[in-house]
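Propose amino acids for all 329 sites.
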């Protein structure tokens, strides 16, 4: 049987496999495209800083956990990126410049209205004409509506798409992003909707090459991912408004765990949601308030999106944060 569990455990962990966030960055390799990520973000931030625009930094989609350094196999999670992609559109409507840091190939703002679709693929939206090709008549109106907003976001340079794939990729970019955005202080909101793994295999403990099946079954031991919200809130982005998400499958745990997160990390907002009801019910929790936001069956049937209710509330909380450095207004 192959096993990764007999490899040396980190020398700087707490004895239970939980390492300090700083140690994580020493023990894992920065993504190869970090410099490119930073250059794009720096240009975007300096443009919006000059315009005095608010920026929301959205994370969206799931992180992967590679099982080999030359990765053939990895652990993934369910997140499709709907929450992040739809929220980006409502933040744009609210006047924000949006950094959309998403899992590669997960849903993107605007594109999400067309692909993936259960019955249509990209080419089904097109039709051949005498001179070339155009949007098929049946979809012209829908394409026009979505394109108008998309074009406006592009023309005003208010949407920056950035990608991650693995957990280290995500964490290096998030940390770097907070450094680049730090000059905007309270003008920035972090909207951390990505489904980030709680467990991973550090690079030093991973097989370098493809795990072989010749020895039968495979036993994996995963380390706990350090609690990055702590340095994010207290050091990396201490002046900004931080909205984290809490996902549970046991209703009894949801609000207590969301409140525990607020207590432990000291940030401003947790949006709590259940796996199976996340598209129509969430609870927006601050230290002094708890508000259930939900859609009626009629609203759901007429394609109202819950993000259209969540974002205005967060904008309101951000207004107060900018005015008084508090969420209590
Ligand atoms: O990406 P999606 O729309 O399928 O799901 C959104 C979500 C459930 C990942 C998000 O709302 C969320 O709760 N993110 C944090 C997950 C966590 O607790 O790790």
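Proposal:
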């Amino acid at each position: 049987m192959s096993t990764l569990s007999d490899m040396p455990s980190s020398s700087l962990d707490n004895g239970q496999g939980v390492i300090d966030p700083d140690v994580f960055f020493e023990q894992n390799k920065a993504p190869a495209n970090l410099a490119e990520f930073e250059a794009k973000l720096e240009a975007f931030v300096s443009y919006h800083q000059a315009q005095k625009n608010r920026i929301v930094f959205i994370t969206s989609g799931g992180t992967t956990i590679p099982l080999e350094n030359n990765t053939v196999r990895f652990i993934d999670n369910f997140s499709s990126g709907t929450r992040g992609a739809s929220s980006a559109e409502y933040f744009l409507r609210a006047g924000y410049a949006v950094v959309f840091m998403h899992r590669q190939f997960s849903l993107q703002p605007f594109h999400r209205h067309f692909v993936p679709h259960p019955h249509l693929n990209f080419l089904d939206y097109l039709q051949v004409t005498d001179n070339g090709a155009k949007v098929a008549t049946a979809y012209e109106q829908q394409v026009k509506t979505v394109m108008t907003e998309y074009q406006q976001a592009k023309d005003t340079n208010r949407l920056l798409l950035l990608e991650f794939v693995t957990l280290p990729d995500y964490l290096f970019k998030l940390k770097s992003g907070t450094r680049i955005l730090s000059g905007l202080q309270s003008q920035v909101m972090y909207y951390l909707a990505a489904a980030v793994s709680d467990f991973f295999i550090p690079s030093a403990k991973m097989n370098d090459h493809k795990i072989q099946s010749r020895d039968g079954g495979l036993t994996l031991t995963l380390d706990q991912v350090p609690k990055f919200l702590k340095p994010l809130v207290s050091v990396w982005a201490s002046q900004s408004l931080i909205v984290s998400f809490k996902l549970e499958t046991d209703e009894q745990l949801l609000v207590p765990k969301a409140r525990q997160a607020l207590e432990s990390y000291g940030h401003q907002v947790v949006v709590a949601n259940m796996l199976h009801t996340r598209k129509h019910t969430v609870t927006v929790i601050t230290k002094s308030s708890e508000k259930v936001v939900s859609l009626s069956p009629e609203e759901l049937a007429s394609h109202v999106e819950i993000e259209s209710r969540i974002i205005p509330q967060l904008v309101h909380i951000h207004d107060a944060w900018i005015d008084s450095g508090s969420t209590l207004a």
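Residues 79-83, 193, 195-196, 245-247, 273, 278 surround PAZ (CB under 6 Å). The domain at 4-239 is CATH 3.40.50.10300 (Rossmann fold).
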